[in-house]
Specification:
The protein is mainly β. Helix content is about 10%, strand content about 35%. It has a 4-stranded antiparallel beta sheet, with no helix packed on it. The mean pLDDT is about 80.
């Protein structure tokens, strides 16, 4: 039995399967590049380089335990074909970038400016003390 299969870890199965998926992706495509900043113990900022993409070309999907960022250039932005370039060094290819989210981490905002998509993730303050649950008789 691995640590992740311990019987006292209840309800973590989706997170564990997502972590296994991410482990298999390690060393994969590095496009687009990104930074992760820690603002404080409950706030993270993800910055992704999305030069050439507009807000309409980007989709963010917050799922349980993961954030999916999708970039796909729309037809209005793809007006130049390859034959119009003397040198084409800026990558405009579509991408998907996944981030595993810890328990309680929520997407607060997403903005794009100057070729950088900035995503703010926050976790509510954790309670220092537990909450007592009353036991009631079913009968």
């Amino acid at each position: 039995m691995s640590v992740l299969e311990h019987p006292s870890l209840l309800g973590f199965e989706p997170l564990f399967s997502h972590l296994e998926f991410l482990a298999k992706q390690r060393g994969g495509d590095a496009y687009p590049p990104y930074d992760v900043l820690i603002k404080d113990e409950n706030t993270y900022i993800v910055r992704i380089a999305v030069a050439g993409f507009t807000k309409d070309d980007l989709r963010l999907i917050a799922q349980p335990h993961q954030l999916l960022v999708i970039g796909k250039r729309g037809e209005a932005n793809a007006s130049l074909d390859d034959s119009d370039y003397f040198h084409n060094g800026i990558a405009f290819r579509a991408f998907q970038r996944r981030f595993a989210l810890g328990p309680g981490l929520d997407v607060q905002s997403a903005t794009v400016a100057d070729g950088i998509l900035e995503i703010v993730l926050e976790r509510p303050e954790l309670r220092e003390t537990g909450v007592e649950i009353p036991v009631v008789d079913r009968g």
